[in-house]
Fold each of these.
Amino acid sequence: MKTKINAKTNQMQGDSLKMKLLWLILLFGGFSANAQTWSLQQCIDTALVYNKNLQLGRNSIAMGEQRELEAKAGLIPKIMISADYKYFIDLPYQLMPMSTFSPTAPEGEFKEIQFGVPHNINASLQLGMPLYNPQVYGAIQSTKIASEIYELQYKKTEEQVFFEIANLYYNANILWHQQAFIDSNLVNTSRLLKNLQLLYEAEMLKQSDVTKVELQKAQLLTRRDWVANNLDQVLNALKLAMGVSLTVNIEVDHEILYESGQNYLTHQTVELQLANAQSRFIASELRTLKNSRLPSVSLMGSYSQAGFGYDKKPNDFLKFFPVSFTGLQLSYPLFNGTVTRRKIVQKNIEVQNSNLQIALIEEQNSMLISNAGRRKTVTEQTIINTSRQINIATTVYGQQLLQQKEGTASLTEVLLAHNAVQEAQQDYLSAVIEYLKADLELKKLTGNISLQN
């Protein structure tokens, strides 16, 4: 199963989610008091629609797309309209040289004069457009990489949800089989107890022999209750991971399916892809910091109307006069106290740490793949061995029962043979679940695990 999360495929994903949502509505609409059998894929499809963590991840992707569009909007021309009205209760003063009024006035003497009219109105339309701005281009590149990071984080969440649901599903499956084994053992123990009680009534056995089997039956009943309680807890955890109500009555498929000897091609894991994307994001921030030393050029223009009014008779008036201009604006940072330099040094250290993190992830992943592969091989052989042990132990138990009836085998030998059957069954189930978990982990480590087919 492989999932491909990309902003360009959101429409296809939306259609897929709608189809799954329709299927889930039909499924939930058919629920009754009886438990419904769910396959692993049905549990995963349900989680894809209802799991809260995945919903948060999809919202993060949408937010990242909007941030990318916001950064690109920095290249779009900006238009601003502004207007203001001022009524001067006291007109502003200005000092004028006395020589302006009298040529014979001495140099250095001034006369205060009030200029203007009380009513001032100004309305302007301003245009600004960046022609070259390294900060804007850097922000666009960074937000584009950030969108990729959001998508990879969503994909990582998908893998975590798949891993969690698969583990819970396998655990529920194994617990159900444990219950089935216990029920089978209870049937055999009850049959044995009934025979022993008949023999005791015929005074052919001691009470202690009957008590031993009664104790074994009580232990089986206690273990059955314990397994049933664990199964309920695992199913509740599975419902929570799926995002459905705990009141929904579900049951897992009882058939244990696994493929032996299956190998996986190693692909780049989501964790490594995420580390590489984060490294590119830091490198983009570093380039933006370095480019912030470059000049920026903007086109600017303005058109405004200035209005002046006087409200005293007989010279009352309101007149408007246009003011307009266009031009280029150049900004070049000369010195900002070495702040940019210090930020560049810090970002270079972050780049080094990012590269070390990538190398560490690759080394750890190689080690974990090797360990998971060995564990899978060992548990696969254990399944074969324990399966044989169940057959042998069951045969021995049947022989011991027959010999006990004939009086050639003691009750202790029968109980020991019965315990051997239970141990072989438990070892088999433990081996199966360990194999499934090792296989699941190997899929994850080799980049072959995903939520969708």
Amino acid sequence: MSSLAGMTFSWADSRRAFTDGARWFVRTAALVGDRWDRPGLGEWDVRALVGHTSRSLLTVENYLGQPAATVEIPSPAEYVRATRAIAAGPAVAARGRDAGAALGADPAAAVADIADRVLARLDGCDGTELVTTIAGGMRLADYLPTRSFELAVHTSDLATALQVPLDVPATSAAQALRIITELAVTDGRAGPLLLAATGRPGLPAGFSVL
């Protein structure tokens, strides 16, 4: 077992990464203008992509209302592994479209309101809270980095769709890349990733650590 297995993050670092990622998402959503029906990612238009990304905030709020009795998922990377099949299913695309529609007539303003509300909710937390996620019980301190990961990746998708700079906050990028590193190393996929990151020929078709 790799020494990376079970990698954890400090609560202070996770709060900062999540806050910075949420604020970047809000700023990027504010740049959409009238392009909500433009292509976003895969079968999603920009509205659906923003809707899906907003769930990175909303699930924190929802899960805090669903206390867990025990820890079943011990780390951010284990959460990603546990939800791989769910993430690949058709229900995710439908939820993204539904979440986009739920943002209403002014999606950018709705995203800003959601971010403000969720960040304020976290002010009363210390990371030890046990929450019931779609994968099982987790400490909030272990769940929050998975949301920073989603914010970093999908706001990057949104920035790409809008053709604006990929200004991923350093705090969010650091946590996302650490999760990617653990997944790649423990799943035996580090070699292709190392080669691609150091300028060698591209990754194999379909390569992903998710």
Amino acid sequence: MFSVIIPTLNAAAGLETTLAALAEAKASDGQFEIVVVDGGSHDGTPDLAARLGARLIAAPRGRGVQLAAGAKASCGPWLLFLHADTVLEPGWSGAARTFIARPTAKTEAAAFRFALDDDAPVARRLEKAVAWRCRVIGLPYGDQGLLIHRDFYDSLGGYRTLPLMEDVDFIRRVGRRRIVMLDKAAVTSAARYRCDGYLRRGLRNLLCLSLYLAGVPPRHILRVYG
């Protein structure tokens, strides 16, 4: 059994599609739970999550805080952390179970291939750039999902209560040699890229990562991220 943990904050617009993809897999393989950790939504997200069969818990606002709270409240020995606007490709649960069956899986973590729900050529270029980052640097982000055994997660100290970069912080503790990339996609909403502009948002994300790797505290990077 594994637990899917989804942090939310005013995520009603995309959450139903995310949960529908999980429900489809759960119908054929019911050995997992869905835990939605809400950070104070006022758009009906909690009611929607409960109506669609997720277990709902409340936590202070902040993705790192919410992820940590979800891990603590969940029941499964395997944890799958997922963003509320990310839809897993059909067949994802089979890929997850193939990873779990690996002899070394309990000391590794797995992430899905990054994809965007946008037909624009610039979206494909960004996907290729992310694939390069994962392959060469071993640095998948939170919008690619993360599957990890609870014991390994706990041994690394879990997600920290950072205002930003909580996913990069945790993946760096996992270590690039212990990251396994799955052959199924995590399709993430491109709404923010379309709103901000692919180039502008991409450069901002790169700047935030560079500042973090240079040792700038996440609370200061948050001013750049917006």
Amino acid sequence: MKIAIFSPYATVAPHFETELEIAQSHLEQGHTVEFASCYGKLANCDFNLEKSPSRCEDCIGRRKAGFSLLQPGIREIELAQTIPDLDLPRFNDLTELKTYYVDNFDVGYAVLSSLVSVCRDPQPDLEHWQPLLGRLMQSALATYQSTIDYLQSSRPDRVYLFNGRFAAMRAVLRACQSRQVDCFIHERGCDNQHYDLFPNHLPHDIQVIQETMLEHWHRGNPDREDIGAQWFEDRKNRVERNWHSFTKLQEIGRLPDQWENECKNISIFCSSEDEFVAIGDHWQNTIYPNQVRGIEKIASDLLSVSPDTRIYLRIHPNLKDVDNQSKREMLAIRSPNLTIIPPDAVIDTYEIMRRSDTVVTFGSSVGIESVYWGTPSVLLGPSFYGGMGGVHVPPDHSTAMELLSQELEPMDRTAALIYGYWQQTHGIPYQYFTSTGLFEGKFKGHVIYNGMKPRKPRFFQRAFQMLSNKETSA
């Protein structure tokens, strides 16, 4: 069996170590392994946008150090691109960009995914970002064509790559799909000691992930309910398993000063829209154009039909250091029935959840966590748990208002346990890599830094929030 691993990002731990893990596993089965690596000639690097020579040297050095630990050895080929001489279109708006395809490659979405991860803005100004947009577009198309050329000449049986969302890596996935070559995307697993593989689809595919969660549940672990429940307990207790806890700095039991127990209290937990805006059409909200417009309309209409209802908007903590139009507009919403909780407030997410009559989300994991903790939950956007039960999923704003005007009862929490069980257990245990933190660890007992200091790439931390199939709590 011939294996190809597309690995341009050796700076990123633990994902490079995961690729070494995958390579070693195949080598021990007697398979041939090729690494498609970058030596600074890619048209664009998502993790080195400035094309810093020292960053390239670090990446190349870390790659060589990692390859030296593989037994037997691997073959390495260089990812070199000839930039296509294309008259790239200028896009007037995001809709035009999102619908731009080349063959089966959703290059518009792929480029937008990288762009929003740079600027952390779900509605980026395309004119302002035109130079970067052009480089991303050229790089994505060059990667797509060079991958097709490689697949035709080298004929691997299987390809591996990281994440698949960004411009160049999605190009590899689409090239493999166009040539019917199995493409396995790797990402973090349930904790730092596991990784996971997603065959021939993005880790963000809602339908496939829901089917996977249900299959995982029905495989029959007798302790699955207790294991699933533990995920929710750990979240509440600020346990960090495979990503940061965004609630660990919150003051346990703290409510907003404006909280009124005698009123009906509805809490809205927003998501980071830039995390999901560029995945694909199935992640587009069909009720509201964006969260800001949705929150404004909910607050206004509830004030008319239920003036005694109080709304508390929790802006996601991971937006604390972000400055974009969406966040500014959200902070500027004004209504006498609305209290806004800024992202850096120490107000306790779980106390708000517990004390609310209804929780509203646009996709945040708080929506399914509320189901577990017995608070009625209304979901107003796409989510991995949206089609599994437990939450109210209105088809339009009118139905949403009907639900929010009622005294809802908690729903069965089986869907929550299914979701929690998958989050607590999915993935493949590492055999050769031992994690010592979110971005650190040892492969075969060695820290692979090639003499450089461990890095937590800024772009990577910004972009990773939506990866690994996780919806972060607020």
